[in-house]
Amino acid sequence: MIKARVTVTLKNGVLDPQGKAIEGALGSLGFSGVGQVRQGKVFDLELNETDKAKAEEALKAMCEKLLANTVIENYSFTLS
Hints:
3 strands; elongated
């Protein structure tokens, strides 16, 4: 079994209203010096696979088809 962590973030240049809201909230809570905040999502998956190359291929397909909107989001993943 292979464990994977997929991280999805907005591409540079895409507006991030949730990140802006978090940035403002941090400032109002007294956390000064926080620059630009960008939010994203993380998926932890367990793949019933032993071949690392096949797992990477499957993860790429999952990201392209469902986990990330590749028009506005980037994704990366790590295997363990």
